[in-house]
Design a protein that fits this description.
By secondary structure, this protein is an alpha/beta fold. The chain has 45 helices and 12 strands. About 65% of the residues lie in helices and about 5% in strands. The strands form 4 sheets. A 5-stranded parallel β-sheet has the order 2-3-4-1-5, sandwiched between helices. A 3-stranded antiparallel β-sheet has the order 8-10-9. Strands 6-7 form a two-stranded antiparallel ribbon. Helix 9 packs across helix 13 and helix 23 packs antiparallel against helix 24.
Length: about 850
Amino acid sequence: MDGVEGRGLFFSGRAGVGKSRLLREGVAALPPERYAIWYVAASTATAALPFGGLAQVLPAEQPEGLSPAGVLRWAVEVLREQAAGRRIVLAIDDAHLLDPPSAALVHLLARQENTTVLGTLRNGEQIPLPIRALWTDDLVEHAELAPLGPTETADLLAAILDGPVDAGSAERLFRLSAGNPLLLRELVLAASGGGELDRPYGVWRWTGRLELAPSLTDLIDTRIGRLESGVRAVVELVAFGEPLGLHLLNQAADPADVELAEERGLITVAQDDRRFDVRLAHPLYGEMMRRRCPVSRTRRLQARLAELLEAVGARRRGDLLRVAVWRLDSGTAQDGTLLLGAAAQAFARYDVPLATRLARAALDADGGFDAAELLATILMFADRPGEAVRVLDAVTGEVTSDRRFSRWLTVRGMVTYWGLSRESTVEEIARAGAELADPGDQARVRAFEAIMRLHGLDPAAALRLSRSVLDRPAAAVAARELARCTIAHLDAARGQFRRSAAAIARVQAEAPAWRADMPYLQLAMELARGTRLALAGDLAGIDAIAADEFADLAGAGDFRLGTGYLAILQAYAARLRGRSGDALKISLGACAVLATSRVYAGLAHAERAQAAVLHGDAAAAAEAMAEADRMHTPGMAVLYPWLEQARGAVLAAGGDLPGAAKHLADLADRLRADGLAGHEVLVLHDLVRLGRADAPVGPTCTDGGRRTVAQRLTELSDRVDGVLPPLLARYARATVAGDGADLLEVADAFAALGLTVWAAEATAIALHGLRRERAASAAAAHQRLGALLGAADQIRTPALEALRPVLTDRERQIAGLAAAGVTSRLIAERLFLSTRTVENHLQRVYSKLGITGRAELPAALRSITGHDGGEAE
């Protein structure tokens, strides 16, 4: 609008994308003393009237006897007179509704000097030729306003609700709104009004129940319009069957009606491999049609869809599941085998609510033991362990073989151990499993016992049992790979990352063979893989599994243990990158997702405590740690290193540095005794970060002394895999030696791995020594630290806090102004001081910062605040 050459801009998009709002906000930003602004909204009511679209702009009376061209010239002159020398800005909302004379006038104005023409257009509408010619003749720019993406939608939701929204809820609302801001707002208002939003741990969650408020219904009605019976039938079929094959739809409805529905923008047809799939143009159309369709017609349509797909053969992977759902919803489901197979398929996709419905229906259709076993398993992952136990106990009479008993025993053991936190379960299944005669059945029980032993912190027994399963040729694939996951997790905790990675890769390669039998094995695999990546400092690897298909399936299917654990990993990665705000937000989301489960809940709160520590909120960190202790269960004892490491951070954040150091030293001794060297490395590194690199740890040596933290890290660097342990050992040695140059090289290596917090701390420690020595390289170190802090959020750690010099309020004020380029004389005038006093203050600042003069001041302040002249700002 205020460009030198630009004469205009038209932007188009779907209804509700925000075109009108953008136009209003842009025009409102123009100062009226410089611009003559006319804002008009075209409408269907004025589309048939000559100059009706610009009736708000032009005088009511037009001169008589003018030709059409004369009228246009008259209109231009009128606007120029009213502008009184100012630049003309004509803004037209819904310009596609302009009448022909108004459209011609807009085109003519766009050709005039000192005139800017702005407008909005709705996609799919017929655009008057004079308006279209504006950008085809290069008179104005044309831009398309795309819908919001998933990230933008989550940000907008957080702004609407004044707080973060959990990832699953944000994803579902994004899908329903299709990124349309207007529909998103209406969905949120409807959910708020219906009490369908809650806020555990400060994170908003949507129950998923959709209330179609009147305002939302009116919006959808306006878009759908009045439907003829044939077109309505098409839209209803697609609403209940999408994605629906075009060939199938043409059998169920008149092809002419299908074409008409597509022309009207109600459905879309897209090619998928060799088949054309039909979907509704917007997800909310389906919600509306399904809500309004009478029950009798709904059931008839669903039964008809099932018949058609069965007739052509369920050839695609998801066809069995779709037929089963249609049969179930239409009341024509009589085949328990069909329902059971569909339930297993839904669970393999981690769609917990749908799998629960189908498995329960299969049990009701006399599915017997197999249906009860599957339903109980699903209920465990739906956080309903009590109900799962009742389902299993109801079919004990059908446990008539060793095969059934092994499966009943393992599912019940899983539910009681993890779901009900009953520690005696391990011994119970060990005794019962020993009585099984079949080696394959016994291997299944042993694989479950092994992973329970690992989680209960009996690594020796876990390893022995897992190896015995792998040694049995009769063991089924699922049992073998579950045992391999146990070994992979244990190897990761011990720092054997290469062996752990190889085992995980083997499990992943066998996924097609175990997924149908034991889809939840994915969770054991992700826990082993996540432990390895976190201990190895492989943040890129964490990013990769967070972007993997499992993350999408778990989020869409409400598989909370999966989404919760992946969120914990994402928060961990964000924290080490210095994004304390993101880490806190993501960890809060993990706590909210896991609020009804105690498997990973303690770990989620421990990570929340770590994020709060980094963000500088000691009170929130202590509260999160207390919640971690409350939620943590003995059945997840294998996670104790993470919780106790967080406790050390919370103690330090609360000001008890000696207590934190003692706690971490004791934890390192315990980890050494348990053989968990991978964890021990990170705990020793935390001691280095607290300035205890030369502190004694471990048992007394033969010479009567004890190894220091730095010496123990050096020893472990030869035993623990990866690039990180040698780097941490080098960091510890350089800290003890006070070697600033080596510390800066270590900092660069940390930064290359994305470990921004550790890089900043290493640079800070180096800078501390360089300041003390008044070294010439201090200025460069200030620059490097400032760049690292500038790339991070607000972060607070003991190493960084020790760097912050104690400046008085006056010194901070003068230093900030000087760093911003204000001369001493002007500073003195502003603060009513003498120039000599200002210079004296600056000399004291230079001394405290370890710099030689004003030229180094911006970098020095940036190394403290993350911003040049931060105090002045």
